[in-house]
Design brief:
Blueprint: H1 3-22, E1 56-61, H2 73-79, E2 85-89, H3 99-107, E3 111-114, E4 121-122, H4 125-132, E5 144-149, H5 152-160, H6 163-166, E6 169-172, H7 194-205, H8 210-228, H9 237-242, H10 254-257, H11 267-283
Parallel strand pairs: 1-2, 1-5, 3-5, 3-6, 4-6
Helix pairs in contact: 2-7, 7-8
The protein binds zinc ion.
Zinc ion binds near residues 31, 34, 36 and 41.
Length: about 290
């Protein structure tokens, strides 16, 4: 290559470089909607247009939940028509900040708290019960589903410090199946993320089986991306303990085991699981 050509090539390279410099400094561009880096944005998997539902959803979110990178409440919000899913943040509800908005919702006979208390009934029973009791007719009514979003200990603490929640009609999901949310280790079989819980409850309440699948698609996209990029597909802790694959440190404390997103199980079932896990731990070969 002679000097002339070499200079020309250099010039072209410089032009390219200058071209690059004109652009703003490189940073990890984030999607405006999901706030994820654009390369891993899951918005393309959202229902389009957003789903129109009869019910509304209110999420009572523990402040720490918002900081999780794999949070799912936003997927629910973006999958539904604007205003159909409202998130309130706090450690007890209502608070002075949201009293005016929340009090009527939490006191309404058409609001259902999805929480596995002793008084909760399977969500499938909601219509039947109302009809057989000759109570208010819920056939044409639209419901507000209220969910607590946080780890299980956080959800329990929110419930304990929010007396207004205790007086609500309470429902639960039974035989919910395993979570699609395989990235965050789930402590027990049947444990669901907030998105899955809401999607499943909506499907049942509105008698529209397609709702669940449509709403959880972004979760599949997110999980697939994580797995393609080397995240291990977690089996639940319960499964691994049963199969004696769980490392010894799990024995440190069971409350860490219960560190999972809100799940709708009756307390009694939860106690059984804890006992089962205790038993499994004792059977594990002791290593020192
Ligand atoms: Zn996005």
């Amino acid at each position: 290559m002679d000097n002339l050509n070499e200079n020309k090539l250099l010039e072209e390279c410089c032009e390219d470089l200058f071209g690059i410099r004109i652009d703003p400094p490189e940073r990890r561009d984030k999607c405006d909607k999901c706030k994820r880096p654009v390369v891993v944005c899951w918005c393309r998997s959202l229902p389009n247009p957003p789903l129109n539902i009869k019910s509304s959803i209110v999420i009572l979110q523990h402040p720490a939940e918002e900081k999780r990178t794999l949070r799912t409440a936003l997927m629910l919000q973006l999958g539904l028509e604007p205003g159909k899913c409202i998130v309130y943040k706090g450690k007890r509800f209502p608070s002075s900040k949201n009293l005016a908005e929340l009090e009527p919702v939490l006191n309404s006979p058409n609001s259902l708290l999805l929480y596995p208390s002793k008084d909760s009934v399977p969500i499938e029973c909601v219509n039947t019960q109302s009809v057989s009791m000759g109570d208010l007719s819920f056939e044409s009514a639209s419901f507000t589903l209220v969910l607590i979003d946080g780890t299980w200990p956080q959800a329990k603490a929110i419930y304990a410090s929010s007396p207004m929640l205790h007086r609500m009609r309470q429902v639960k999901l039974i035989a919910a199946g395993n979570s699609d949310y395989i990235i965050r280790t789930q402590p027990t079989e049947g444990c669901l993320s907030t998105l899955e819980t809401a999607a499943q409850a909506l499907s049942i309440l509105e008698r529209r089986t397609e709702l669940r699948q449509l709403l959880i698609r972004p979760l599949h996209t997110l999980c697939k991306f994580q797995i393609d990029n080397g995240a291990v597909e977690h089996q639940s802790k319960e499964f691994r303990i049963k199969n004696q694959q769980y490392p010894k440190q799990i024995g440190k404390r069971l409350n860490r085991l219960l560190n999972y997103s809100t799940i709708c199980r009756p307390e009694a079932v939860e106690d059984n699981i804890v006992n089962e896990i205790d038993a499994a731990l004792q059977q594990q070969p002791q290593e020192s």
